[in-house]
Specification:
By secondary structure, this protein is mainly alpha-helical. Helix content is 68%, strand content 0%. The chain contains 22 helices and no strands. It starts with a helix and ends with a helix.
């Protein structure tokens, strides 16, 4: 009995390396170390956006220089297990669907667990899943088993995406109650930037590993898994949470009368989805993302089909008039357009989320929808006028608001439901992303196909699509207008909302000595560790953009 009591005492006094109690910040900790830790994880899992860089090499992984076609009657089941013919890009593309469906569902399922166990454990598990999934995919490529790729990166990696995506949200909101939007914008900016860094890096690796018997993909997966594991572990172990009762030095929460849209209390995660406000914000995110993701997925063919020969100085040539060499030329130009949109997506995450701290979350979304309606509705006219610059700028702004919607919504949830369970509530809200990931591309792709089948010229096949996407934003505007403060009946009672004070062994409960500090050596090194890869990605993107206007 004594031994058992001693063991119990040791367990309480010495929390495990991944336990929440182990990462409560002590005096001298600088809160500006938390955003680069979050970025380290988001920049890695954000490569999910860039996986299309592998599709063409994988579609000829047996033929090496050209695809080995499967029998005409071979279906998807055959593709999952065949070792005698190459995969179709469409079969590989299902991994995108798995990524974002699993991201939303895993974030919803394990969001509550994250709040209980803390961000370090969630980040650790995310690293194991994402990087382990890449290694399983490498085995799938080496043995030519598509089902292993679906299982590895699609399912297991998708779970890692969900946990990694939401792991910093609650933590950052609590560290930066004075700048909620800016803090979450910094982290979620990394998810948009992951492909900007990972895609050119993957291209370099594949070219380096390519041989007469290999397209270099499985080797690239292994190297990326190792690099990402190091960065994600550094991020997970860099997480700290503020002690109970902590607040930034000199900051006090505004009184309820000053900002009625900011909650003074907490709604439990088990009650949040019972409120009208949760589902209105769900609709706001879903509609904003549906419009943006549909365009993002078709950006390259859209620019090529609308402007055709105008992309290389011969506006009299439509897309259908181009020969194969000319189509290859404009594909390179369109890659610059896609890269530029990605850059707007990334910058918009930080810009709009930071601006929302001044404007308020509701007004920021009003701006997204009102400006987006005008831009989508004017896109066909800009295209028919042949205004390449106007068209590119319009869609750059649209994609900045697409990214800004992702980055602003965690702060919107914290405003409405309090900070205590915001990570778990955000996890459940991300099912809106899963829905949008299906809705947006389906609308854009199927309307395009229907227009082409009806004989509409390629330069005009996107006109109806733009008007429908503008209609999505009208609905989003209405949903946002209906959002009001959450009824007080949903808020936890004071005795329920109070979390137990955990003795960290350093006596630092409350605000004293915690979280303060400016640009010290540790902060500079942490930001350089994530800033250098971001600078590499921006440089690579700008190089491709030069082709667009060159």
């Amino acid at each position: 009995m004594v031994a058992a009591d001693q063991t119990q005492g040791q367990g309480i006094g010495q929390p495990g390396l991944l336990d929440r109690e182990r990462i409560i910040a002590h005096a001298g900790f600088n809160r500006w170390l938390v955003p680069p830790a979050a970025l380290a994880i988001h920049l890695c899992i954000g490569m999910a956006y860039g996986f299309s860089v592998f599709w063409l090499p994988l579609s000829q992984s047996i033929g090496i220089t050209a695809p080995v076609a499967c029998p005409a009657d071979a279906g998807l089941l055959n593709a999952l297990f065949t070792t005698s013919c190459d995969w179709k890009v469409a079969d590989l593309g299902w991994m995108y669907t798995l990524f974002f469906v699993l991201l939303g569902s895993s974030a919803a399922i394990w969001g509550g667990w994250l709040e209980r166990e803390g961000p370090r454990k969630a980040g650790f598990v995310a690293a194991i899943c994402w990087c382990g999934g890449l290694l399983i995919s490498a085995i799938g490529v080496y043995t030519h088993q598509l089902w292993l790729m679906w299982l590895g990166s699609g399912v297991i990696g998708g779970i890692g995406l969900g946990l990694g995506y939401i792991s910093p949200v609650s933590t950052l909101v609590k560290w930066f109650p004075d700048r909620r939007g800016m803090a979450t914008g910094m982290a979620i900016m990394g998810f948009g930037g992951g492909a900007m860094i990972g895609s050119p890096l993957a291209n370099m690796l594949m070219n380096g590993f390519k041989t007469e018997t290999s397209v270099g993909v499985w080797e690239t997966f292994v190297v990326l898994a190792v690099i990402y594991f190091v960065f994600m572990m550094a991020g997970a172990f860099g997480y700290r949470i503020p002690p109970q009762g902590w607040a930034p030095k000199g900051w006090t929460a505004p009184p309820p009368s000053a900002k009625p849209m900011i909650a003074h209390g907490n709604v439990h995660v088990k009650d949040a989805h019972k409120t009208r406000q949760f589902w209105l914000i769900w609709a706001v995110l879903c509609l904003n993302v549906s419009a943006g993701i549909g365009v993002l997925g078709m950006a390259s063919p859209m620019l090529q089909e609308i402007f055709g020969g105008a992309l290389f100085g011969q506006p009299e040539l439509g897309f259908s008039d181009l020969n194969p060499d000319q189509k290859k030329m404009i594909a390179g130009v369109a890659a610059g357009f896609t890269g530029l949109l990605s850059l707007f997506n990334i910058v918009g995450r930080f810009f709009w989320a930071s601006l929302s701290d001044k404007m308020g979350r509701k007004m920021t979304y009003f701006t997204f929808f009102a400006l987006g309606i005008v831009l989508y509705a004017s896109a066909p006219s800009l295209a028919h006028m042949g205004s390449k610059i106007g068209f590119v700028v319009a869609f750059g702004i649209i994609l900045s608001m697409y990214g800004g919607g992702f980055a602003t919504v965690p702060a919107y949830l914290a405003d409405m439901f309090g900070t205590k369970f915001v990570g778990a509530i955000h996890g459940r809200l991300l099912t809106a992303w899963s829905t949008a990931g299906i809705l947006g591309p389906v609308v854009v792709n199927y309307i395009r196909e229907a227009q082409i089948a009806a004989g509409v010229p390629r330069a005009q096949v996107y006109d109806y699509t733009m008007y429908i996407l503008a209609g999505f934003l009208v609905l989003g505007f209405i949903a946002n207008a209906l959002i009001t403060p959450v009824d007080r009946k949903w808020f936890m009672k004071d005795e329920d909302a109070a979390a137990p004070v955990v003795n960290t062994g350093n006596g630092q409960i409350g605000s004293a000595g915690v979280g303060s500090g400016g640009l010290d050596a540790k902060v500079v090194l942490a930001w350089l560790a994530v800033g250098i890869p971001i600078a590499f990605g921006v440089y690579q993107t700008l190089q491709s953009v030069v082709k667009l206007f060159g």
